[in-house]
Write a structure and sequence with these properties.
The protein contains 15 helices and 12 strands. With 347 residues, the protein is an alpha/beta fold. It starts with a helix and ends with a helix.
Length: 347
């Protein structure tokens, strides 16, 4: 009875067990486990220890290794509302994949913008000796750096410090606006409108600047009368239809996919077709919208997966950067069916 009980009772394999199996001292096992490469241990002894670790299923004490190295194999990600947004999973996914690739596990804390919760989350991560922390907001904006972050390595993701005192990785809004406009220029359009948002933000200013740059590079004069401010929602696009049609534009770049969705509704109500009567490009690549509109919407994607992955690489020093640099990531085009040739419209 006692023998059966012992056989069925699991117990953790200890360093002493490994030492006995390998025929070495506990100190030698410790040196191998903690990867002390300069320790005077013969190759044969190292091999016996590693074989014993594998055969016995020994798991090193993570806390002890943390005390030796000064940090754990965890990386923290703290966000204000990222877990409730359409793009949240992609930032987390990108950071998680990249962390795992380099031997780290991601700890995620969503604070819902609560300052106390944020302070506690950062504090707990510091107590666990994380390798560093990514701090992210649910949309691209300036943010105040929480004091606790400065106690470890950190990178801001999809946000930046207005004081330029922190490394940050953000979407290249200017390049994205330029790309969106260029898609319409390349289709032969010359009178291109833009429906921008009413809210000041890096997206508002950056995408407009990109639009202006693309027009200038193509030799098309910028006409402020072709830029309309609207709420960054479906209603904003719907309410812009009359102005857009009165402007004589043959194509329009919308601040985001929700605005484009409202524009679709307004044009359809007036018996107009996309892309035959109006070519449309959105921004964000919010797939639940863009891929399922009729016709599917050509848009420019926010690179959320790459923002998360890039943040990890910057944190670990894999990608080089200047101290406190603002790093931008390109916004790629996603081609679908909402652009037509201008010659076709003119005919």
């Amino acid at each position: 009875m006692t023998s059966e009980t012992n056989q069925n009772t699991a117990h953790p394999v200890t360093m002493r067990d490994v030492a006995e199996a390998a025929g070495v001292s506990i100190a030698t096992v410790s040196l191998v486990v903690n990867e002390k490469k300069n320790a005077r241990i013969g190759d044969d002894a190292r091999k016996r220890v590693r074989d014993a670790i594998r055969d016995l299923g020994y798991r090193p004490n993570a806390l002890a290794k943390t005390l030796v190295s000064g940090h754990s194999k965890f990386i923290g990600l703290v966000a204000d509302a990222i877990a409730t947004t359409p793009f949240a999973g992609q930032i987390i996914h990108g950071a998680q994949d990249e962390a795992w690739k380099h031997g780290y596990v991601l700890l995620v804390a969503n604070t819902d913008g609560n300052a106390d919760a944020e302070r506690e989350a950062v504090g707990m991560m510091l107590e666990h000796k994380v390798r560093g922390i990514l701090y992210s907001t649910w949309y691209h904006r300036a943010t105040e750096v929480p004091a606790g972050l400065r106690e470890t390595d950190f990178v801001l993701v999809d946000c930046y410090s207005p004081d330029d005192d922190a490394t940050a990785v953000v979407p290249d809004e200017v390049q994205g606006g330029r790309t969106a406009t260029q898609l319409l220029i390349d289709s032969g359009h010359r009178r291109i409108a833009m429906i921008n948002t009413t809210t000041p933000s890096p997206a508002h200013e950056g995408r407009l600047l990109g639009y202006q740059q693309a027009l200038a590079a193509a030799g098309i004069a910028y006409d402020p009368a072709l830029v309309f401010d609207a709420l960054p929602e479906q209603e904003g696009g719907y309410d812009s239809v009359e102005q857009l049609l009165a402007s004589g534009a043959t194509a329009v770049f919308c601040h985001n996919d929700r605005v484009a969705m409202g524009l679709y509704d307004g044009l359809r109500r007036r018996g107009l077709s996309i892309p035959e009567d109006m070519a449309v490009v959105g921004f964000d690549n919010q797939e639940v919208i863009a891929a399922h509109l009729r016709p599917p919407l050509t848009t420019v994607a926010l690179p959320h997966y790459e923002l998360g992955a890039k943040g990890i690489r910057l944190l670990l020093g894999i990608d080089e950067h200047r101290p406190n640099q603002l790093v931008t990531v390109d916004c790629p085009p996603v081609l679908r069916s909402s652009i037509a040739e201008a010659a076709h419209i003119a005919s």
